[in-house]
Design brief:
The chain is of the alpha/beta class. Helices cover 43% and strands 15% of the residues. α1 (2-19) packs parallel to α2 (44-57), α1 (2-19) packs antiparallel against α14 and α9 (211-223) packs across α10 (240-254). The termini are far apart.
């Protein structure tokens, strides 16, 4: 409730001043458009307030919003599009959008109509905007973003002789810091004789065996110049770059002994809250939890543990899209929908939306003074290096086998090379079946 109250208060402050001078690109007759989204949790009051403000400042456009669970939308959208009954504007997440685009359920946004509506691609983080691109065309505008970040315990870093103001950026520095943070129950370090890796008292980094854990491996692969799929959109996460990157991640457990073997996200989350872990890479959505616990922590972008090719971290996102409509669809509704998208993704609205838990989707918002002194600001410099798992229609056919490959490698059930090779074989088998539904 604290975040919702803050968001609604901020909305009033941000939007009341702009209300009198709101400029609309839409000059047509009064129309009513429908808006379908999945923001049904604590973020719902924020979205409802935004829609209310839009309607108050755009007398010739009425937006009727409906919130429903994401899964319901994914099930209903194809049939609604096929029958010509889809909402005018629909929010689609990064893990679903390419699939719907490839199936013809979403209409492309031309450069001309984006320009007419005042939507400038350049105001957004590049990789984030391109998340909704497919085969050279744009299909959505980002409204919300989350990311994999690295939380760190400042007190534990100090205790280990590390400077909490100098978070490791490279693989070598990260390993050194993780080793400094690791001790067994008798106080021995990993490089000392008699060290017991099975009885850790504190440890350097949290890794775990679920899909969130595999996103750390995904980031490492990107950092090393690898990818999940090749240019033909076949699975390729067993490339030499991928094997080398994931091998280092697994070595943190099996070779360097700075992480607990086969641990779960819940166990590592509890350990970080209890001051047992220096570095906790996970979703930025835990920020509010740690702030409420009044921990002495910081937030940093994922260090280059995978390689030196580029900075990279996984990110999730939501995009405003225009579903495909019937042939005689009212052009005024499309123009009004684009006006709504532009307004909803403008800096003032995005700044208000961050109070619902989203990261900024554009540099202008990340520079706002409201973030000064807040831990999350530690990742803002590199928000342009966040990459979603999108761009291929068969998301589940790639990510399912990849997640399993990570779990098998991390747990030691298979070597890294065998785990990734087996994962790619399974993924491409599933992709071949999936391709038939797109032909």
């Amino acid at each position: 409730m604290r975040k919702v109250t803050l968001a609604v208060t901020l909305l009033g402050a941000l939007l009341s001043a702009a209300e009198a001078q709101a400029q609309s690109s839409y000059k047509g007759p009064k129309v009513t458009i429908t808006y379908l989204h999945g923001f049904t949790g604590a973020d719902r009051p924020v979205m409802e307030k935004l829609v209310q403000q839009f309607n108050a400042t755009h007398p010739n456009i009425v937006v009727r919003a409906q919130g429903q669970p994401w899964g319901t939308t994914w099930q209903q959208l194809p049939s609604l599009v096929a029958s010509g009954r889809a909402a005018d504007v629909v929010v689609i997440n990064e893990d679903q959008i390419t699939n719907f685009v490839a199936r013809g359920a979403v209409s492309p946004l031309t450069d001309a109509e984006l320009k007419t509506a005042g939507i400038d691609k350049g105001r957004f983080y590049g990789p984030l905007f391109k998340t909704a691109d497919y085969q050279g065309k744009s299909y959505g505008v980002p409204i919300s973003s989350v990311a994999y970040v690295m939380f760190y315990n400042k007190d534990l870093m100090k205790k280990a002789g590390l400077d909490p103001n100098k978070v490791p950026q490279t693989r070598a520095d990260f390993l050194k810091a993780a080793q400094a943070c690791t001790t067994d129950k008798s106080g021995k370090k990993p490089d000392e004789a008699g060290f017991d890796a099975k009885n850790l008292d504190t440890w350097g980094v949290s890794l775990y065996n679920n899909w969130v854990g595999s996103r750390a491996a995904y980031a490492a692969i990107l950092q090393n110049g690898g990818s999940l799929v090749d240019k033909n959109l076949n699975a390729s996460f067993n490339s030499p770059q991928a094997v080398e990157a994931v091998q280092f991640m697994v070595d943190l457990v099996s070779k360097y002994n700075v992480a607990r073997p086969n641990s779960t996200e819940e166990a590592e989350l509890a350990a970080f809250s209890q001051g047992k872990v220096c570095f906790f890479p996970s979703g930025q959505w835990y920020l509010d939890r740690f702030e409420q616990q009044k921990m002495n922590f910081g937030v940093a972008f994922m260090p280059r543990v995978g390689g030196t090719k580029q900075d990279a971290a996984w990110g999730g996102s939501s995009h405003l899209t225009l579903p495909k409509q019937k042939a005689n669809y009212d052009k005024n509704k499309r123009a009004a929908s684009l006006e709504f998208i532009n307004w909803m993704t403008s800096p003032a609205q995005n700044l208000a939306w961050t109070e619902a838990g989203s990261l900024p989707v554009m540099p202008a918002v990340a520079k706002d003074k409201k973030f000064e002194g807040r831990p999350i600001q530690g990742v803002f410099e590199k928000l342009g290096n966040i990459y979603a798992t999108s761009g291929f229609p068969w998301g589940g056919q790639v990510l399912g086998p990849f997640d399993n490959a990570w779990a098998n490698a991390y747990s030691g059930k298979k070597s890294v090379k065998d785990a990734l090779n087996d994962g790619v074989t399974e993924a491409n088998k599933q992709i071949e079946q999936a391709r038939k539904s797109f032909r």
